[in-house]
Amino acid sequence: MPTRAINELLHSLSHSYKSALRTGIKDQQIPLPITHIRALKGIHRNTNCTAQSIAQRMQRDKAQITRVLNELLEDGYISKIANPDDRRSQLLRLSDKGMKIFTQLNAIEHKANKAMMANLSDEDMRAFIRIGNTMIDTGTAQ
């Protein structure tokens, strides 16, 4: 029988990971709120990224995302280019400044992952990933 309920374990795991990321972001003096960071990551991952796709991915109101994107644009973290498939929208890209932050974020995530996996064997990690994916797939199917 587990010593912790699954909801407590998942909450603690998520909290621990987010705390490690926040510490890394603070240590690296990244001057952006989490919403801005999530938007940068979304832009990097999606080559056909638009404001609408970011709003959907982040499950936020388009007006809120537009404000975030305008701030990122004003601060030089992103740029906009014409969307060849839709004249009504623009594609978003990371600028050099945005790419520098993205690279720092990757290093922070790698460090947090490494620390959290330090006492786990490869077999443990494979099992964790398999179980986690099964739980995600089951949870989204309902």
Structure description:
The chain is mostly helical and 142 residues long. The protein folds into two domains: 1-30 and 96-142, no CATH class; 31-94, Arc Repressor Mutant, subunit A. Helix content is 68%, strand content 7%. The protein is built from six helices and two strands; from the N terminus they run H-H-H-H-E-E-H-H. Strands 1-2 form a two-stranded antiparallel sheet. The longest helix has 22 residues, at 6-27. It is globular. The two termini are 26 Å apart.
Q: How much of the sequence is in beta strands?
A: 5-15%
Tally of domains: 2
Question: What is the β-strand count?
Answer: 2
Q: Mean pLDDT across all residues, rounded?
A: 91
> Helical stretch count?
6
User: What order do the SSEs take from the amino end to the carboxyl end, as H and E?
Assistant: HHHHEEHH
Largest beta-sheet details? 2 strands, antiparallel
Topology at a glance:
Layout: H1 6-27, H2 34-45, H3 51-58, H4 62-74, E1 78-82, E2 90-94, H5 96-117, H6 122-141
Antiparallel strand pairs: 1-2
In short:
This protein has 142 residues and is mainly alpha-helical. The chain has helices spanning 6-27, 34-45, 51-58, 62-74, 96-117, 122-141; strands at 78-82, 90-94. Strand 1 (78-82) and strand 2 (90-94) form a beta hairpin.
Which characteristics define this entry?
142 residues, mainly alpha, two-stranded antiparallel ribbon, Arc Repressor Mutant, subunit A, globular
